[in-house]
Design a protein that fits this description.
single chain; alpha/beta; Rossmann fold; five-stranded parallel sheet; 43% helix; binds guanosine-5'-monophosphate
Length: 212
């Protein structure tokens, strides 16, 4: 008989938040690239696309009317306004991935994270922060993809993101990228190993039962 590992009846939702400039994308992307069981949730947004962004990969770029229609139709798992634009997580893709036993990673801000927590209490919320406010501002400017006005608006949002820390389960301080990636990898591994998420009975029956 084959000795299989315990099965997880449903996938895990990982919510990762962090101010723009926290480097959350640099932390999450290598993990997702290396782990086919971890699927990125592509959000919808009304913000204009940045250079290099592809519709359906980074975001679904939609207009306000389309976005509001989707919210009205109940198609968004959560949604929020950030720096003047609307952002939301399409519910269908998340459901589908979870049903296939895949884990889903949502990169969203705290207002949305709170909504996810309310409807999916088993979701794991991770906050990624830069080591200091000064470092954040440097990184935003170095990135060079945003106008000065957009940078100011993003910095204003930083305070509210910091204040939302009690909502989260884990903190990763991104002062060293490799270490931050390793920490998030460990968090994901630990959550996957949680016994209460596993179908332990089937595992015991199959691997340790009398009928072998
Ligand atoms: P950006 O415009 O820099 O890509 O994202 C701005 C902020 O919106 C980031 O904090 C990002 O995590 C957040 N965000 C991206 N997609 C979503 C979403 O679907 N819902 C919510 N609530 N926030 C999102």
């Amino acid at each position: 008989m084959q000795h299989r590992l315990p099965h997880r009846p449903t996938g895990i939702v990982f919510v990762v938040s962090g101010p723009s400039g926290s480097g959350k994308g640099s932390v999450t992307h290598p993990l997702m690239a290396a782990d086919p069981r971890l699927e990125f949730s592509v959000s919808a947004t009304t913000r204009p696309s940045r250079e290099g962004e592809v519709h359906g990969r980074e975001y679904f770029f939609v207009d306000r009317a389309e976005f509001e229609q989707a919210v009205k139709a109940g198609q968004m798992l959560e949604h929020a306004q950030y720096a003047g634009n609307l952002y939301g997580t399409p519910r269908g893709a998340v459901r589908e991935a979870l049903d296939q036993g895949k884990d889903v990673l949502l990169e969203i801000e705290p207002v949305g994270a709170r909504q996810v927590r309310a409807v999916m209490p088993a979701a794991v919320l991770v906050l990624i922060l830069p080591p200091s406010a000064a470092e954040l501002s440097d990184r935003l400017r170095r990135r060079g993809t945003d106008s000065e006005e957009a940078i100011q608006r993003r910095q204003a949002a930083y305070a509210s993101e910091l204040a939302s820390w009690p909502l989260y389960d884990y903190l990763v301080v991104n002062d060293d990228l490799d270490r931050a990636i390793e920490e998030l990898r460990a968090i994901i591994a630990a959550e996957r190993a949680r016994l209460r998420r596993l179908d332990m009975q089937t595992f015991l029956d199959r691997n340790y039962g009398d009928d072998e």
